[in-house]
Design a protein that fits this description.
Blueprint lengths: L1 H29 L13 E5 L2 E5 L2 E18 L3 E6 L6 E2 L4 E5 L2 H29 L5 H26 L2 E3 L4 E3 L9 E2 L6 E19 H13 L12 E6 L7 E8 L9 E8 L11 E7 L4 E7 L4 E2 L4 E6 L5 E12 L2 E6 L7 E4 L11 E4 L13
């Protein structure tokens, strides 16, 4: 047994030695290669060069929509409301019958006044014949002439009161809901009972204000265009858009300006009149207003999304010849159709980062792919 155990131990020692030799060879082979860190490739960004685009100088403001005309329909005579001849909230035409107030009493008053007029006229004519025969006095003639004139005035008053029993629309517009139901007494004790509101919505007004500086810009632009403002408001085109609309789809014209600035706010009130056939603009809505101050002039622009503004001012990120990102300060102008005017700070050959801004860090390398800018088709988007 001792011999076998010795042989087993010898075999184990030979196997262990072989394993050690094999490990040493593997370690020696690995020592021939060196390990080092390889940085990731620079991030990819898209760059574009500034392009020229026709830019119009606009005056931008926020306005309020108001009805061109607004009337409260009231009962001007006393009586029971006989009928309502319209549907609430519908368009109405000028002269369209809207309400009828019990007319019988006023028809009777008119008939009585006409009878008194006929009697007074007949007696006056008789007095004229009698005065020619010295059968009456001049005083009686004057008395019956006065009675005839008073009766004629009573007839006219009765006609007016009878006309008040039929209430019609004073203009084309849209009527609100009725405020009194049929069968109710209206106009009692000489009080005017409010029945409904009618508003003219086509065309419609948009009121807005401009500050003193913008007012001077408007005057200067008018003078440069050869139409100086000399007391009469020029019929300048005005574009209007609601808060949820894209661009300025409603076209009108300027038709009123206040005589003086409001000393409290330092602003001048202006008004535009705008066609509104579909009643899209409603009184009380806020609206964006834009008034052109000049003809379109080509100016250098970049996408507005590429411009960043901080406490110092505005800047863009550009890629230099060494593929490094640089923060470039610029002076900006108006924004139109998603493009921003660059007044200074860029050259026509500047590679401005327009996509991948989150990867563009000033001082870092990037892989830039140039993409030419495509100008918008029309000048109608909101700034």
């Amino acid at each position: 047994m001792s011999v076998e155990r010795s042989q087993a131990h010898a075999a184990l020692r030979r196997t262990a030695a072989a394993v050690l030799v094999l490990c040493a060879l593997v370690l020696l082979g690995g020592c021939g290669r060196s390990n080092h860190y390889e940085p990731p490739p620079p991030p990819a960004v898209t760059v574009s060069k500034p392009v020229k685009m026709p830019i119009t100088d606009y005056l931008n403001a926020t306005g309020t929509v108001a009805a061109a005309q607004s009337v409260e329909l009231v009962a001007r005579v006393e009586g029971y409301l006989r009928s309502i001849d319209f549907q609430d909230g519908t368009p109405v035409k000028k002269g369209q019958l809207l309400f009828v107030i019990q007319p019988e009493q006023y028809q009777a008053n008119l008939a009585s006044a006409q009878a008194q007029l006929e009697n007074a006229q007949s007696e006056y004519q008789r007095q004229l014949r009698m005065i020619k025969e010295n059968a009456t006095s001049q005083a009686n003639v004057e008395k019956w002439r006065s009675s005839r004139d008073q009766a004629a005035a009573s007839v006219e008053l009765a006609k007016i009161q009878l006309s008040y029993t039929r209430i019609s629309s004073p203009f084309n517009g849209r009527i609100d809901r009725h405020l009194v139901d049929p069968g109710n007494l209206v106009g009692a004790s000489g009080q005017a009972t409010k029945l409904a509101n009618v508003e003219q919505l086509d065309p419609i007004y948009v009121y807005f204000t401009v500050n003193e500086r913008d007012l001077l810009r408007v005057r200067a632009a008018a003078a440069a265009a050869g139409t100086p403002i000399n007391g009469q408001v020029p019929a300048a085109p005005v574009s209007v858009g609601l808060q949820t609309e894209s661009g300025y789809p409603h076209e009108g014209k300027l038709d009123f300006a206040s005589n003086s600035l409001d000393t409290g706010s330092g602003t001048l009130q202006l008004r535009a009149i705008v066609p509104n056939q579909k009643f899209t603009l409603l009184p009380g809505l806020f609206a964006r207003v834009r008034v052109p101050l000049s003809q379109a002039v080509p100016q250098w622009v970049v996408p507005d999304r590429a411009v960043t503004t901080d406490q110092v001012g505005s800047y863009v990120l550009v890629v230099g010849a060494d593929h490094k990102v640089v923060q470039q300060r610029i002076e900006i102008g108006a924004a139109q159709n998603g493009m921003r005017v660059v007044l200074s700070g860029l050259s026509p050959q500047s590679d401005v980062v327009v996509n991948g801004l989150q990867f563009a860090v000033p001082g870092n390398l990037v892989t830039a792919t140039e993409q030419p800018l495509t100008l918008p088709a029309a000048d109608g988007a909101a700034p």
